[in-house]
Write a structure and sequence with these properties.
This protein has two helices and 13 strands; from the N terminus they run E-H-E-E-E-E-E-E-E-E-E-E-H-E-E. The chain has a three-stranded mixed sheet. Strand 10 and strand 11 form a beta hairpin. It starts with 16 loop residues before the first strand and ends in a 36-residue tail after the last strand. The N terminus is likely disordered.
Length: 214
């Protein structure tokens, strides 16, 4: 049967450019298009890519050295083309990009722009990759698709009920209510709403309340 094997030599790729892009929790929740600009090296199309006339495209320079009756040939990289056998010129070009941050985009999400990095005649063009960096929100914390809101309430509010108006990330006003007699237990001190834990405090260890005894 036919044996599989590697094909021809894989073409190299220029280095990917990785850039952070900051986004607020509101922008991640509602979606946002951000305008960014990158500066990259592109091949000067007017000059084009030419064969090196010093090494005739071989990338190697041959020197003949006579040592008495002996003649020795030495090869070295062509300095004119850097051993590439080609000469070309690059120029800086500013490229505007529109980065679409879709609704619900997670922190650390990668948004690639294919073949937008630096150009080279002997390599495929690399990518520009934006990595979403979520900025800290004044009120909400996020874990996956869930939002957490931390508010201090008094002990009497926890026992007798309270109303709390919250402005959502899309601008909606939400009213959070608890009924009288519905006991609201505070979470353990030092509890991080983003952490995976179920520890709760009991009433006898509540501190810093507005009613010392119940």
């Amino acid at each position: 049967g036919r044996r599989g094997g590697g094909g021809g030599r894989r073409r190299q790729k220029t280095k990917d450019v990785v850039m952070p892009i900051k986004a607020t929790l509101e922008q991640l929740y509602n979606g946002q298009t951000k305008k960014m600009a990158i500066t990259r090296q592109v091949i000067d199309k007017q000059r084009g890519v030419q064969e090196c006339n010093v090494c005739d495209g071989s990338g190697v320079k041959t020197q003949v050295i006579r040592m008495g009756p002996m003649i020795q040939q030495m090869q070295s990289h062509c300095d004119a083309c850097g051993g590439q056998g080609k000469s070309f010129r690059t120029k800086s070009e500013k490229e505007p990009l529109e980065v679409l941050i879709q609704k619900g985009t997670p922190d650390g999400h990668k948004i690639p722009f294919r073949e937008m990095a630096d150009e080279h005649p002997d390599a495929d063009t690399g990518d520009v990759i934006f990595i979403v960096k979520q900025t800290e929100h004044a009120d909400f914390k996020r874990r996956g698709a869930d939002l957490f809101l931390e508010r201090k309430i008094s002990l009497s509010e926890a026992l007798c009920g309270f109303e709390l108006e919250v402005t959502h990330l899309d601008g909606r006003k939400l009213m959070i209510k608890s009924s009288p007699g519905e006991i609201v237990r505070p979470m353990a001190q030092g509890f991080d709403p983003m952490a995976d834990t179920e520890n709760k405090m009991e009433w006898e260890v509540i501190e810093d309340s507005d009613c010392p005894d119940i």
